[in-house]
Every structure is written in structure tokens, then in C-alpha cells.
Specification:
Length: about 325
């Protein structure tokens, strides 16, 4: 979303305060290293080895999971987007705001091993290895429309498992009403995090429990019948296809169950983006219409559909009581 003008008043505190997420991230890192609470790294100036170690290749049994069985319930009224176009037109601000450059800047981003922490109001908080998760939870392929708030759109085959499958495993407490998802913070691997310090890294998003548990909501590890390329948010991302694309957070490291509604990366950055971000042709962005959208491969303009065409699945979530 290169159009966003960052207000000064928001930019300054992000520079000057030591953001909570820096501590958060260090804690997560120590935990990943197995040193949590031991202080073994204290005073040691050297780069911990895992941060510079070469990336592990895809284990053969993981590669063999793709392509996953296609779920015939999710087909489309339009052609799939050309794979090469989808993979070279990406919003991933951790690297750059230039959509066509993202794929050229992700080589040093290491995605294996990758841990995903689930915490907060759940009976079974734990840290998953993403490969182990993918081995255990049922992978399926679904064809979904995808709509960015900038009014471009695509249609792609995602592979993943339902967010609900993970939620059932960790058993949220009855007090849990929201789920907050956080991306990685690795400025040495993601140059946009280093160069664009005015953003409040790491990227964070959130859904209500009902949204997260909806049948449509996926945790995605693959696209076009193979693992996600890094520019699409490897190794694991969210897809909530009835919402504008910025809700579908990439490269997730933490999922937290909460009682109160958390803020989100874009709603904190600008009043132009709200928590809900449901696709709606009748609610214009403050600076452009949302009535139609441009398909990124053909350039064709097509009408925007309410909830991106998924009203049958989600309209009930937003009925006024
Ligand atoms: N961590 C993270 N997730 C993100 C973004 C981002 O910049 N960082 N961009 C969002 C936006 S605005 C869109 S449109 C989609 C783009 O996904 P794609 O590049 O796979 O098409 O990712 C979303 N998830
Ligand atoms: Mo977007």
C-alpha cells in the first residue's frame, strides 16, 4: 500500500520508544533457541548460530504433501490468475513497498525451521514447528478469490488447513473472544523492516473468534500445488477471503487468544483502515471507489462483490442483533 502517507505524530513514537515487540521478539527467539530464562546468551556479542545458519531444505515428506486434495466445495466463477503474475506482484512491506520487487528481496529470508507459538487464553498453549503441524493437520486445496484494498484482485489455489483445526487443538477458554496474529521481526533478513522504521514492526492482525473459526478461514502453507514461495508469506500465513488482503497476515510466528479486541498494524497506521475490513463495493476507501477491481494478470475490471462473493459463508457474522 504505497499510497499511505504516514502522519508524523505516529512516526515519532515508533522511532523513540523501545517498542514492546523488540522485547517480545527477543523472548520468542530465546525460546526458539531453547534458552528461555537461562540467560545463556547474556553478554555474548556473537550472532547466535541459528540466525546465520543455512536454511534447511524442504524435507521430502513435506514436499510430497503437495499438491493436496482439492476441496470441490470451493470453485470459482473466474479463471485462476497466472501463477507467475501472482508470484511477482506482492504486498509484503517487511521487504519493500514495491510489489514487483518483493520476490527479488526474499532470498535471505530463512523460513525453515520455523516455530509458531500459540498462547493466551487457551487450555493448551504450545510452540509448534510448522513442518510438524503440516504433517499432522489435514491439508486441502481451495480455489479462492483474493481482493486487496487497493482494488486489485486475483484468484488462486491455496493449500492449507482450517484455522478451526488448530483452534480445536489448543482449546480456547470461554473468555477468548479475539485472536491476534503476529508476523516475524528479522530486520537482518527483511530489509523493509530495517529501512522503513516508521512502521510498527512486526506486522500484526486480528480476527474475532467467530471469524477465525469460520469454515473459510485458512492457515495456508501452499499455493498452486506446492509450498508457498517466500513472497507469498511462507511458511505459514492466514487467508480470510471475504476481507481485504491486508487482514491475511503472512509469515506468522505467534497466535494469541485474547478477551479484548486488539488493534491491528493498518488500523494503528491510518484511520483509513478499520478492524473489520470486509470487502464491500458500496463502502469506498476515503481516496478511491471499491465498486470494481482489476484482475492482476489480464487487467480486466470486474464488479466487486459483497464479502468478495462469500456472503453465504459470512454474512451472518455481521448481522446486527
Ligand atoms: N506480514 C505481512 N502480511 C501481509 C502484508 C504485509 O505487508 N506483511 N501485506 C498484506 C496485503 S496488503 C496483501 S494484499 C496480501 C498480499 O498477499 P500476496 O502477496 O500473497 O498476494 O498480504 C497481506 N499480508
Ligand atoms: Mo492489500
Amino acid at each position: 500500500m504505497a499510497f499511505i502517507r504516514i502522519p508524523r505524530g505516529w512516526e515519532m513514537p515508533a522511532h523513540e520508544a523501545t517498542p514492546a515487540h523488540v522485547f517480545e521478539n527477543r523472548r520468542t527467539f530465546l525460546k526458539e533457541m531453547g534458552f528461555a530464562g537461562l540467560g545463556l546468551l547474556a553478554g555474548c556479542g556473537a550472532q547466535p548460530e541459528a540466525e546465520t545458519a543455512p536454511e534447511r531444505p524442504t524435507p521430502p515428506d513435506i514436499a510430497a504433501l503437495y499438491p493436496a486434495r482439492r476441496n470441490p466445495a470451493f470453485t470459482l466463477d473466474r479463471k485462476l490468475t497466472d501463477e507467475r503474475v501472482a508470484a511477482s506482484y506482492n504486498n509484503f512491506y517487511e521487504f519493500t513497498t514495491d510489489k514487483e520487487e518483493v520476490r527479488n528481496l526474499v532470498d535471505n529470508f530463512r523460513i525453515r525451521p520455523w516455530q509458531l507459538e500459540v498462547r493466551g487464553l487457551v487450555e493448551k498453549p504450545r510452540i509448534y514447528d510448522v513442518d510438524d503441524l503440516v504433517r499432522r493437520l489435514p491439508l486441502e486445496e481451495r480455489l479462492y478469490r483474493f481482493r486487496c484494498v487497493e482494488a486489485w484482485a486475483m484468484a488462486v489455489p491455496w493449500t492449507g488447513f482450517t484455522f478451526k483445526a488448530l483452534i480445536d487443538e489448543v482449546k480456547p477458554l470461554s473468555a477468548a473472544r479475539y485472536v491476534r496474529l503476529v508476523s516475524f521481526y528479522k530486520p537482518d533478513q527483511a530489509r523493509g523492516q530495517k529501512l522503513q522504521k516508521w512502521y510498527s514492526w512486526p506486522y500484526y492482525e486480528a480476527l474475532t473468534m467467530a471469524e477465525a473459526s469460520n469454515e473459510l478461514t485458512l492457515l495456508v502453507t501452499g499455493i498452486y500445488g506446492h509450498e508457498l514461495p517466500k513472497q507469498h508469506g511462507a511458511p505459514i500465513r492466514l487467508i480470510a477471503p471475504w476481507k481485504y488482503g491486508f487482514k491475511s497476515i503472512k509469515s506468522i510466528v505467534q497466535i494469541e487468544f485474547l478477551e479484548e479486541q486488539p488493534s491491528t498494524f493498518w488500523s494503528d497506521a491510518s484511520a483509513e483502515y478499520d478492524f473489520w475490513a470486509n470487502v464491500d463495493p458500496e463502502v469506498p476507501h476515503p481516496r478511491w471507489s471499491q465498486a470494481s477491481e482489476r484482475l492482476i494478470d489480464t487487467g480486466e475490471r470486474v464488479p466487486t462483490q459483497l464479502y468478495n462473493g462469500y456472503a453465504a459463508y459470512v454474512a451472518d457474522l455481521y448481522k446486527k442483533t
